[in-house]
Amino acid sequence: MESTRQAKISRLLQKELSEIFRQQTAKTHGIIVSVSGVRTSPDLSVAKVYLSIFPSEQSAAMMANIKDSAKTIRYELAQRVRFQLRKVPELQFYADDTLDYLENIDNLLKQ
Prior knowledge:
The chain is built from four helices and three strands. By secondary structure, the chain is of the alpha+beta class. It has one domain: GMP Synthetase, Chain A, domain 3 (2-Layer Sandwich). Strands 1-2-3 form a three-stranded mixed beta sheet. It starts with a helix and ends with a helix.
């Protein structure tokens, strides 16, 4: 059960991270990275960030690139939320493959 504070911080982090990824992926034409969800731990020290990457063929390479630059992303996030949060949680990135799952189900239903 997520507390009200956790939910508020999760929404704040999702909003700011999606803006960061929007600015970064504007430089790479043809790749869209969206933040589908953020879950924070009860002590607010870790945030699990779920990313949806389109096209999914480049998902693995993009996730590796994002995980390599996690400290830079955390720093940029800290600059944006420095007046709302005292300490920015550690970011852990995961690929959200629900769109691929839905597409697979659609293909199976069409057959």
